[in-house]
Amino acid sequence: MSDPKDQKVDITVDFSGGLEILFSNQKHHALSVPAQDSEGKPANVGFLIKYLCQTLMTDPRADLFVLGDELRPGILCLINECDWELEEEDAYVLQPGDNILFISTLHGG
Amino acid sequence: MNSGETSSSQNGSNSSVPRDTSCPLTEEELDRYSRQMIVPGMGKEAQLRLLNAKVLIIGAGGLGCPAAQYLAGAGIGTIGLVDGDVVERSNLHRQVGHSTSRIGQPKVSSLMTHLKGLNPLPNYVAHECHITPLNAADLVAPYDLILDCTDNPATRYLISDVCVLLEKPLVSAASVQTSGQIIVLNCPPTPQGQLEGGPYPPCYRCCFKKPPPANAQLSCGEAGILGPVVGLMGVAQAGEAIKILASALHASPSKKGTPRHPVEPTLLLYSYSLTSFLSPFTFRALKMAPRKKNCFACGEGSQARLTLEGLKRGEPDYEFFCGGLGSGPGQGVLSAEERISPREFVETVQQHGKEEGKGKYVVLDTREKEHFSFGSIEGAVNVPFGKLLSKAAQMKRSGETPEVEDILPPEVKIEDSGGDENVPIYVVCRRGLDSQEAVEKLKEMGLDRGGKRKIVDIAGGMKAWKEQVDPSFPYL
């Protein structure tokens, strides 16, 4: 067995509604993320959000994605096509094969 | 949201008298609606429900036009239209219920002209005004079902709140650039604050608790919109409306506590990429949570927070909640020395350069490349704002001392003579906001060499350039 610190979990992350501009204009990302956070706890969606800011975000306007440590208002997070409020929100522990979708709510018409 | 008079003009028969459901349809109706009536699940009863239904379409734009067309075609008995704007030429690529010959006309009357040509039988009601907290309840009350086809968050929260208060189902859609969203809310309509015996359907606030900050709100006018994207969402709204009305989902559920229909709130997302042929997805159906206990509008104790009387007193304050109307262009952070008007730029900087054969300078245009592709100030180089910020952040992370060349395209060479006469940089954007931030960012990076290089904002952007210098400039 490898060191648990080096273990990864393979997931896909999608951005929509304009958020993709912060992530090299790419809507779909296949990622291998650490299976544990720095404290050795299983990686959850809250960890993923910070991880995305640190590693995947190419645009420095982080405030378009997070405010403080939280997802900014007006962004929905969907875990395997379900509103994260149906799961455990940012405490949901990432599972291999998960799809995490971030969408900015739209208002134009 | 302007307050406006509600001008209702009824025409045709008064459809507030429901038809006798045993009464046969007229010869014309039988013919006109035959193809939809024979669809499995429709039949005479469903068609009669449509003929007796009253639908209010709020917004006669990119969503409202296609939605209204299909509802009119389907024979909805009464169709109300709310909009206070007039038709503009830049609307027509997507707002297909208007026409070139009706530019300048109120959108409501323009769309009504189109709908009557399509189907003269429905009763069309014109409301040539914007929906406001003052008129919202009066506008919404007479109708069975509401379509939110508007274009800003403050109005969307208002419409949802009124639909909660008056127990109306709401079909809400929105679209910008290449993305669209649609969701059916408050259907079947459920009394405000009722939670026991649920789950009950969510309202707009249950799904979208807080609006995005004003700087993250994209409008179609600012960010652009593709016609078919918003059109699809509008057509889908009509589809949902017909489904709800034909199956009588709009009739209030029994108030004993059990909804008659399972609640499966779904947000349909449509998104594609213009630049990637194989985009990862186009349609996605996302499962949303039901009515929330802590929802401001429909949750526990909401009757004390949100009332029809409160709305008229200005509570809640929708504009404040949604971050005001956004900071307009022209407001900024720079001092007078750091800004130059387009006219002054032409008269001093450009002329000076021509006369003396020197006066080298760089014009840095921070608009998106799509805007830049239509034209720019002579000799301008394009570094889109987002890219500029990314480059600046990258430099900061690497710890290197930034040089001007690092942020400019590689083909641009800067020949600084050294000393106090470094090549100045003039920054321009679309309307004069990003450029000011860019000036600050460049100075923060130390590119002004402690004041030895002028970095100046061309005030008011290419919009002001068109007004002051070149009226034929293709400003978009």
UniProtKB/TrEMBL annotation, chain A:
GO-annotated biological processes: protein urmylation; tRNA thio-modification; tRNA wobble uridine modification
Covalent cross-link Glycyl lysine isopeptide (Gly-Lys) (interchain with K-? in acceptor proteins) as placed by the record, residue numbers: G109
Functional pathway: tRNA modification; 5-methoxycarbonylmethyl-2-thiouridine-tRNA biosynthesis
One cellular component term from this protein's GO annotations in UniProt: cytosol
Keyword check for Electron transport: no
Location of 1-thioglycine modifications: G109
Post-translational modification: C-terminal thiocarboxylation occurs in 2 steps, it is first acyl-adenylated (-COAMP) via the hesA/moeB/thiF part of UBA4, then thiocarboxylated (-COSH) via the rhodanese domain of UBA4.
Keywords linked to the UniProt accession: Cytoplasm, Isopeptide bond, tRNA processing, Ubl conjugation pathway
InterPro entries to which the protein is assigned, alphabetical: Beta-grasp_dom_sf, Mopterin_synth/thiamin_S_b, Urm1
Compartment(s): Cytoplasm
This protein's record includes keyword Metal-binding: no
Domain of life, per lineage: Eukaryota
Family stated for the protein in its record: Belongs to the URM1 family.
Function: Acts as a sulfur carrier required for 2-thiolation of mcm(5)S(2)U at tRNA wobble positions of cytosolic tRNA(Lys), tRNA(Glu) and tRNA(Gln). Serves as sulfur donor in tRNA 2-thiolation reaction by being thiocarboxylated (-COSH) at its C-terminus by the MOCS3 homolog UBA4. The sulfur is then transferred to tRNA to form 2-thiolation of mcm(5)S(2)U. Prior mcm(5) tRNA modification by the elongator complex is required for 2-thiolation. Also acts as a ubiquitin-like protein (UBL) that is covalently conjugated via an isopeptide bond to lysine residues of target proteins such as AHP1.
Name the record gives this protein: Ubiquitin-related modifier 1
The species this protein was found in: Pseudoneurospora amorphoporcata
Gene this chain is encoded by: URM1
TrEMBL record, chain B:
CDD domains in the record: RHOD_ThiF (cd01526), ThiF_MoeB_HesA_family (cd00757)
Keyword Nucleotidyltransferase: yes
Protein residues bound to ATP: G62, D83, S90, N91, L92, H93, R94, K107, D151, N152
Start and end residues of each stretch annotated as Disordered: 1-24
Reactions it catalyzes: [molybdopterin-synthase sulfur-carrier protein]-C-terminal Gly-Gly-AMP + S-sulfanyl-L-cysteinyl-[cysteine desulfurase] + AH2 = [molybdopterin-synthase sulfur-carrier protein]-C-terminal-Gly-aminoethanethioate + L-cysteinyl-[cysteine desulfurase] + A + AMP + 2 H(+); [molybdopterin-synthase sulfur-carrier protein]-C-terminal Gly-Gly + ATP + H(+) = [molybdopterin-synthase sulfur-carrier protein]-C-terminal Gly-Gly-AMP + diphosphate
Molecular function per GO: ATP binding; metal ion binding; molybdopterin-synthase adenylyltransferase activity; molybdopterin-synthase sulfurtransferase activity; thiosulfate-cyanide sulfurtransferase activity; URM1 activating enzyme activity
PROSITE patterns, sorted: RHODANESE_3 (PS50206)
Top EC group: transferase
Enzyme Commission identifier(s): 2.7.7.80, 2.8.1.11
Summary of the function given for this chain in its UniProt record: Plays a central role in 2-thiolation of mcm(5)S(2)U at tRNA wobble positions of cytosolic tRNA(Lys), tRNA(Glu) and tRNA(Gln). Also essential during biosynthesis of the molybdenum cofactor. Acts by mediating the C-terminal thiocarboxylation of sulfur carriers urm1 and mocs2a. Its N-terminus first activates urm1 and mocs2a as acyl-adenylates (-COAMP), then the persulfide sulfur on the catalytic cysteine is transferred to urm1 and mocs2a to form thiocarboxylation (-COSH) of their C-terminus.
Record-given protein name: Adenylyltransferase and sulfurtransferase uba4
Name of encoding gene: uba4
